[in-house]
Amino acid sequence: MDGFALKPVELYEVGPRDGLQNEAARLPVEAKLRLIDAIAAAGLSRIEVGSFVRADWIPQLADTDEVARQLRPWPGVRFSALVPNRHGLDRALAAGLREVAVFMSSTEAHNRKNTNKSIAESLELFHEIVPVATQAGTRVRAYLSTVWGCPYEGKVDPRRSLTIALALKEMGCGEISLGDTIGVGNPRQTQEIVRMFFAAGFGPGELALHLHDTNGTALANTLAALDLGVRIFDTSIGGMGGCPYAPGAAGNLATEDVASMLADMGVSTGIDLEKLIDAGELAQELIGRKLTGRRLQAALGRRAGTEARRAAST
Q1: Element (H, E) at 124
Q2: 8 A C-beta contact, residue 182 and residue 147
Q3: Is 73 left (phi over 0), alpha (psi -120 to 50) or beta?
């Protein structure tokens, strides 16, 4: 691996948004705030707290306005949320957020399923959002889904994704998050995509990867991208997540899996692994089911074993 691999890596936590929107449980505001605080306490410096979409679209996130208003300020932590249109942006700004994210897909079929718009219509809509946000001093990232493959159109030519990403960058989106929405990517494909984007002028600080783990290759794809210089990865506490418009898609890459792997490699993330496991345990408790994060379950198993031995010795 080259020298880029030893540079610090930033994990962008999407669990309170992308994770909870795919859970059957609807957490109250207080529970969401507890989870966000636990994630921030573990050292995550960027946390996506919700989405300003219509409540009937994603009822699990209907209270994002209240969550954003009640966020405890954490030094060095940036909170963000998804905005689907100008009204969503206005709500985000009114709630005090200074980073937002827009979202669209690389394929027409998925974009229509996810946003009820064509790709051209999404780009046109973003012209009503991105300049207003940047003029207000608000950072804008853009999610670009189905870059590796689409549940409706199959394999995707990365040049299609690049064309859209360049338009988003020119519009004012300071960071583009490329999504393997259905988790079909392999390391060679990942490197081909990353090389193409870097060759087109994207820098390491402008490109993030949003990897799902359907085929169990998300960590391998992370490593492949890391080796080329990517340093921003979207992750979800405990591996929560999925995609309501991508049948069969598994959860997001678990934050603790990536953070632990990077720590083992000597790559800095600024994350306290013990507190991260605490956050994962809390997430599991709040949503009421066992999460898929491998490092989380391994750590919880060790903790249970230690407690059992202590109890047996007393």
Answers
A1: helix 119-126
A2: no
A3: beta
User: Are the C-beta atoms of 51 and 61 separated by less than 8 Å?
Assistant: yes
> Which residues lie below 8 Å from residue 28, measured CB to CB, with a gap of 6+?
63
Instruction: Confirm if 176 and 193 have CB atoms less than 8 A apart.
Output: no
What residue type is assigned to position 218 of the chain?
A
Main-chain phi, psi angles of 48, to 5 degrees: -90, 120
From the list 300, 247, 250, the residue with the least C-alpha distance to 274 is 300
Indicate the number of domains in the chain. 1
β-bridge pairing 149-150 and 154-155: antiparallel
Residues 6+ apart with CB under 8 A from 290: 284, 297
| Tokens at 218, concatenated | 């998300």
Classified as helix, coil or strand, 43 is coil
Tell me which residue of 106, 257, 262 sits closest to 176, measured CA to CA. 106
Cα-based distances in Å from 187 to 67, 197, 211: 37, 15, 12
173 in active site: no
We report the CATH number of the domain holding residue 41 as 3.20.20.70
Write out the chain's pLDDT in tens, 314 residues. Answer: 444 456 899 999 999 999 999 888 899 999 999 999 999 999 999 999 999 998 888 999 999 999 999 999 999 999 999 999 999 999 999 999 999 999 999 999 999 999 999 999 999 999 999 999 999 999 999 999 999 999 999 999 999 999 999 999 999 999 999 999 999 999 999 999 999 999 999 999 999 999 999 999 999 999 999 999 999 999 999 999 765 555 555 679 999 999 999 999 999 999 999 999 999 999 999 999 999 999 999 999 998 888 888 888 87
Helices (DSSP H) in 234-293: which residue ranges? 255-265, 273-287
Catalytic residue chosen out of the listed positions 39, 82, 243, 246: 243
- Show the domain range for 210: 3-313
